[in-house]
Design a protein that fits this description.
Strand order of the largest sheet: 1-2-5-4-3
Radius of gyration: 22 Å
Distance between the termini: 34 Å
Structural class: alpha+beta
CATH class of the largest domain: Mainly Alpha
Helix content: 40-55%
Number of helices: 17
Strand content: 15-25%
Length: about 475
């Protein structure tokens, strides 16, 4: 087995044959690693390389295991269930045959009938296909419910109706232009995507971002978390029929976006982060702390009212239960995973941007229901206010960017803890210094895979609340 170590980048690369891939992954698992994803990297001469990413949170390291897909590749899904969707995606896009896959049918191609839908033959069971066009402005998806009365026996989501081919759109671009596409993969996570993408490019180039730029990056990331979590609370209140609670959550999220717009010129924090640092400096004046303090005070009162509302809390408690084993094995991430006892957090476990010198409290619950997911997000919301205050106290002067041009054939891995969970970018450049492959591992891709496990054997009246409690994004999943 060939081994290359990249100490500065904090990851190890192991190369092995397809026949030995399970042995290599088992070794990393025994060392405390957790699978994150597998993706395909086409190489010259029609060679296709599979790259498995393993997260060693306790050691603050990653391992990448590579193998050539020259023929049928043993499926790792039975041993590492979260890889199931990744293998099916690779099979759809690159034609790789994963031998002994437990679900050997298309993931992203839309077929007349969902091949993995169950055959439930009973006059008492009704079938309800809902979507892909749904009410309001929600994203396109089709959900098939198999139910008897109010009890959901089985649930099958069909996503990828708007697969935009975002990863392919990076091909041929330079690192400096690709960030524009990264910001548009998922609008509500624009900053997190730009940050993870830029970190991957910086790792490929071996450049070090100035301290001020790192601090401002972390500050912007927390501003993005604040408006996302406030919007989440409003949406969750809506599904429990608290219309005033919905309006208040949306109002507070809007005020957070207005702070973003006044500070940076972009409500969604676009056009700021770039490989090498920031496009321009951000002048943080006294009004920022004043407005954030006022927003925090209103948010505290809003959360207090939600907590004191028995009709709201009663609808959340025990709804959409996700146990810790399922959350871990199936790849849950972010607040969803932490509400089920999975204590993983990239800001703490693999510090990046300006987080290295900060104490990151990580709220973890074990109940695994919608109420636990609500409480984890509330705790994270106020942690973001605290982190911004700490960053503002220690904000330094200095440059905000350095040249960042990865060399021919370079590769890099970048990550960010987005409001929805772990986000990864893997970039590979060709001999001309342009992208030949960019892989995006989004948190919603992970959490959509987990979500059905909380719907089976639940009831129709709780479905909307359960889905809202996950905070899912279809754009982040479809890409």
């Amino acid at each position: 087995m060939d081994v290359k170590t990249a100490a500065k980048q904090k990851f190890h690369i192991f190369s092995c044959s397809a026949e030995n891939i399970l042995q290599a992954l088992e070794r990393e698992y025994a060392r405390g690693g957790r699978m994150e994803m597998v993706y395909a990297h086409p190489r010259k001469g029609a060679l296709l390389e599979l790259r498995y990413l393993v997260n060693h949170a306790e050691a603050s390291q990653f391992a990448i295991i590579t193998c050539e897909a020259t023929g049928p590749v043993p499926s790792m899904t039975r041993r590492f269930p979260l890889l199931g969707w990744y293998e099916r995606e690779i099979a759809d896009l690159y034609g790789v045959d994963f031998a002994d896959h437990p679900q050997p049918y298309s993931l992203i191609r839309q077929e007349p009938e969902a091949a993995d839908s169950p055959s439930l033959q009973s006059p008492d069971i009704q079938i309800l296909p809902f979507g892909p066009i749904r009410a309001d402005v929600v994203e396109s998806a089709e959900f098939t419910f198999y139910y008897a009365g109010e009890s959901i026996i089985h649930y099958h989501p069909r996503l990828f109706f708007k697969h935009r081919g975002m990863e392919r759109r990076f091909e041929g671009l330079t690192p400096q232009t690709g960030v524009i596409f990264a910001e548009r993969v998922s609008g509500i996570g624009s900053l997190a995507h730009a940050l993870a993408y830029s970190l991957a490019c910086e790792q490929a180039a071996g450049c070090t971002v100035p301290v001020r730029a790192q601090q401002l990056r972390a500050l912007l990331a927390e501003l993005e978390r604040i408006y996302n979590h406030l919007a989440y609370l409003g949406y969750l209140a809506d599904t429990t029929t608290l219309k005033v609670g919905q309006a208040e959550g949306k109002l507070l999220a809007e005020r957070a976006k207005q702070i973003n717009g006044r500070l940076t010129g972009s409500r969604f924090l676009r056009g700021i982060v770039t490989p090498g640092g920031l496009r321009r400096d951000i002048m943080v004046e006294a009004w920022v702390e004043v407005d954030l303090a006022a927003l925090r005070e209103e948010a505290e009162w809003y959360v207090h009212l939600l907590n004191e509302d028995n009709t709201f809390r009663d609808r959340l408690i025990t709804t959409g239960h996700l146990d810790d084993n399922t959350a871990y094995d199936q790849g849950a991430t972010g607040p969803v995973a932490r509400a089920s006892g999975v204590n993983r957090e990239l800001r703490r476990d693999h510090p990046y941007a300006g987080y290295a010198g900060l104490a990151i409290p990580v709220p973890v619950r074990t109940e695994g229901d919608a109420d636990a997911r609500f409480h984890v997000r509330v705790a994270e919301l106020f942690t973001s206010f605290d982190l911004i205050a700490a960053l503002l106290r220690d904000l330094t002067d200095g440059p905000i960017a350095v040249p960042c041009m990865p060399g021919p054939g370079a590769a890099g891995l970048g990550w960010a803890e987005s409001p929805r969970g772990a986000l990864f970018y893997a970039v590979h450049l060709d001999a001309a210094g342009r992208f030949e492959r960019v892989k995006i591992k989004s948190p919603s891709f992970s959490n959509w895979r987990v979500f059905p496990y909380t719907v089976h054997n639940s009831n129709m009246m709780d479905y909307a609340i359960n889905e809202a409690s996950f905070g899912l994004s279809i754009a982040g999943c479809d890409r």
